Amino acid sequence: MQTSLEHSHLTEDAKLEAFLARIDRDEKIEADDWMPDDYRSQLIKLISMHGISEIMGAFPEKEWVPKAPTLRRKLAIMAKVQDEMGHGQLLLRVAEDLIAPLGKTREDLMLDLFAGRLKFHNVFHMETPTWADAGVIGWLVDGAAIITQTMSLDTSYAPYARALQRICAEEKFHAQHGESIVLDLAEGTEEQRQMLQEAITRWWPSLMMFFGPPENGNITSNQASNMRYKIRTQTNEELRQIFLKKYLPRIFHLGFTVPDETIHFDEAEDKWVYQQPDWEEFKQIIKGKGPRSAHRLHLREMSYEETKWVRDAILSYGRQVG
Amino acid sequence: MNGMSNQTNAENNNFSVYEVFSQKTVSASFVHQFSLLAPNAEVALSMARENFLRREPCFNLWVVKRDDILGLAPEERPFLERLDNKSYRETRGYGDLQGRWRHHKEEFEAKHNTGSGS
To answer: Which residue, among B1, B2, B5, B21, would best test binding to A if mutated, counting the most A CBs under 10 Å from its CB?
Structure first.
């Protein structure tokens, strides 16, 4: 889009002050508005990570497309994989408009991913050895994602909020798709129940890591600045508590357990008390050292390389027809 | 000019941002959906279906190159806010009419001794 005025001639300090006043008034920021450099860089970090995670998030489940137990399940999981790629497209578009003034494009984001500079969510580095894992991803991983994304619907950056409105609507289908798989298994044979219990046990540490380390009263400068700018409104631990309150009772209602003997609800504090996962392991996983990190990155890179001729052909055709 | 799309990377040079609009039914207005990155309008149109219309009903679809849209700069947008002295343009500027009609009807009925509906 073209617009027809140069930015007004204010000093940087005055611009920052006016920007913060807009944030305080709960106004939303658009891509072509003036914004402080660290607001832009926080958004780029968050949204490119989110976008790439949607794309890498399609890999664990795509493994189950050929092996889904019925045709209906196959169609549903294919639709979900397609949705995730679509969400990636939306979010990368939002990220592109933010990196454009820095002279960067989607190409750079992809190369950052391959070089390990751009991280993706810890859960998508993990294995999905059984059909129950596909169910648990939809039920609990998408369930966790809905909690983060619902918070982010209020984000101060308007293009991100608009993308999330579309995404949240579809995530609800994903969660129901997962619940449907999980309930079938939970209501099934002993063998099916055991498969589901094993998947829950396997995914539990990853789910506890999902929202990031707890603050323990020390909010990191990243989180503090994201909250000052109203990019996010809740802390990692607040989000994790929402997740535990919603999902732990359901796990117990189905007669399943989580691999944490100390876990209990503290009525006075109104929160779940749980065993911390291994945060050092978390760091290693998102660095690309999870059990499936290298394999999935390799698949992504291969698909990027192998489709290059298609992109080249379309571009060459575009040039010919003008 | 405050252009929003400055593609600089060589390989991406020929991809453009397209804005997508869709119309739910024949009697509905076109609504902006989102944007996408495509090498040409034809590909943009088919990507628009894949990206935005996997579930929603749709009657018609447009894609428009973002560079071909002229919009307001952020500094100009506040001037869109309307001054609150334009009631003569709106129905709320004529809220007294019903009461006055009622008054005339009641006066007429009192004078001619007729109840309503008779």
So the answer is: B2
